[in-house]
Design goal:
single chain; five-stranded mixed sheet; elongated
């Protein structure tokens, strides 16, 4: 199942398969960005390695921290939109690196 179809299944009823570290412990650190979606609708890291992907049963597979970060994405996007207004006001209409970073992240999340 492509990840875009499986995204809606992340919730209380979703079954998650977690990759484990060498000692069997759950991996706790998320994969550093940038992330991108490949031609198979898998989320990949900057080297092109798949870090999140979906299965036909609707489950999502990847590191626990990456799954949690992906599940938080809608909330993070809304927080960024609110922050954009605040930072824009602070910047007083002038280009500002934080504002540009916020706007770039929002555009990426919205597929622009």
């Amino acid at each position: 199942m492509p990840l875009r179809e499986a995204r809606g299944t992340l919730g209380a009823a979703a079954s998650l398969r977690l990759r484990r570290g060498e000692g069997g412990e759950a991996v706790s650190k998320y994969t550093r960005g940038p992330w991108h979606v490949n031609e198979n609708d898998e989320i990949c890291d900057s080297s092109g390695e798949s870090i999140l992907w979906g299965w036909d049963d609707g489950s999502i597979c990847g590191d626990k921290a990456d799954i949690r970060l992906a599940a938080a994405a809608p909330d993070l996007l809304e927080a960024l939109k609110e922050a954009e207004e605040y930072v824009a006001e602070y910047a007083c209409g002038k280009p500002h690196r934080v504002l540009q970073a916020v706007q770039a992240a929002i555009a990426k999340a919205e597929g622009r």
